Fold this protein.
Amino acid sequence: MDQTTTAILLSIIVTALIMVIFSCLYYLWRKTRKLEALARKNTSNASPTAQGSIYGYAGKELFEMLKGRTEERQKIEEVQKGYIFYLTRHLEAVLEQGLIDAKKSRSSNLRSEMAVGGTEGEILSWLPVEALSKFYAFGRDLAVQPDHSDGAEELKASLNQLVRGVLAEIDMDTYSSRVSEVITRKYISEPEN
């Protein structure tokens, strides 16, 4: 075999490989376009997800129902049991926002409504801005105090009072110690013995 034959065979092999590579790329490009079109079609047909509710109540309507006690006692107790988790998460989120904002030296505008996720889905929780601003300020104060262990008992008492005030407004004060304990465990350090 001489050099020209080898060069011709090598160029034929390289050309064939390039053709195979470009054919594969073209095939993948077409399939990707089809999948993207299918995905666009499926997402455009999907309906927006609605916020969940507890016995048909959500947001301010839920808060007003608990505050006004417009339903029968058994139904109110079931709503309270379902809502306490979401309410706790709402309070934690506002307190944590205060912590974050204090560290970043900024402030946030609080809104009464908040979509709170949980194991059963997302519920729209509503609390008055006045109550939320107290938790936000508490969070900002926590961020300013570098070591919580010195005044942990005072902080716990203050937090317990805040929680009791919010829950008493909707007649859920029986849950206040449990909610306070959950929030305390997350955000207030216990003194070391």
Residues 100 and 106 are 9 Å apart (CA to CA). The longest helix spans residues 3-45.
